[in-house]
Amino acid sequence: MSSAATRPAGPDDLWSVDEHLEDILATVRPLEPIELQLLDAQGCVLVENVTVPVSLPPFDNSSMDGYAVRVADVAGASEEFPAALEVVGDVAAGAADPVRVGPGQAARIMTGAPLPPGAEAVVPVEWTDGGLGEGPASGMRARSLAPEGAEGQVHVYRPVEARAHVRAEGSDVRAGELALKAGTVLGAPQIALLAAIGRGTVRVHPRPRVVVLSTGSELVQPGEELAPGQIHDSNSFALTAAARDAGAIAYRVGAVADDAETLRTTIEDQLIRADLLVTTGGVSVGAYDVVKEALSSVGDEDEPGGGVEFRRLAMQPGKPQGFGTIGPDHTPLLALPGNPVSSYVSFELFVRPAIRALMGLTELHRPRARAVLKADAALRSPRGRRQFLRGRYADGEVTPVGGAGSHLIAALAKADALIVVPEDTESVEPGGEVEVVLLG
What's the rounded Cα separation, in Å, for the pair 116 and 99? Predict the structure, then answer.
């Protein structure tokens, strides 16, 4: 068991939300760093600073399709008196040995191609006749269709300044500069930068593997017909989706019946692919709440720091909770209540921060804000409980959605915030200020 879990507590004592969360975060540690290929590292957190080995771009190159010229050769050029230059060849992107541009000469150049020796600027093709002698051009002829376009003469109708339409070497980043700092989450732009500077692999905290399973003999897979007394399993889908949204690689296990031995075997089988286990249901005080029964003999309860403890928290919804570590690798396990709203609220408060801690992130929690309560009547809350109500937040105001019932999934689907009513508050009047947890 984790250290905070051994605090003195009588059978009727309640843990606060903060105490339970503190215990979880004191136990969960970032996953060990590994070296991954770039695309495998998407969504992961860097564990080291990455510096630029070669300047980007690595050479002066053209930002336009046009002609590489010397500035003096096009000074004073106009449509009435164009500058006539000899075209000495093409410079394409990837050219290793570009032609040299001398006085009175120009080279046809493509976007991204290196600025050839002797050239000082690039004239866009639209400022020339494209070598056709027919007035301003709208584009270049494809070399495969008209190879003679790389020779002959071009008329330039406008002057340019030195370095015009040229991307300077190192204008993006220079060799030796910091490209990405440790702690950066790798999204598509960051992976693009790593690839651009030549990094094929990167050292990161891997995304945690989270296994989600729900319990209850009444649960039926969505898509199957319901028999009397049955309901569709929504919790495992909601929590798996929420785990992926938090950054994890999440696996959903089909609902497990209310049988302690079956549940115990299922959990033991899942340990091989789990950095974190999340169960939902079976943590209350009913005769069929089998999670407590099953976890009493799973894993590492005889190991120092091992085992799962079940608690009652001073919160609504989500009073019954379980937390600990199991198995030979001391895999963290969070046991959440089975009511859909209780389960989801518990995930947001406890599981999501645990996932982000495993990832090595420093920002673990959803953002919070102060909001004015927009409601027809006062919000009531039991004293001594921290209540989390569903709401919609906009422009500094929050409106409650649905009631306080922990089974109201439709209301949860309409909410984008949780309204927090503190333990010492029994009523919040319309127009009063409340704290909200922003969910999206």
Answer: 6
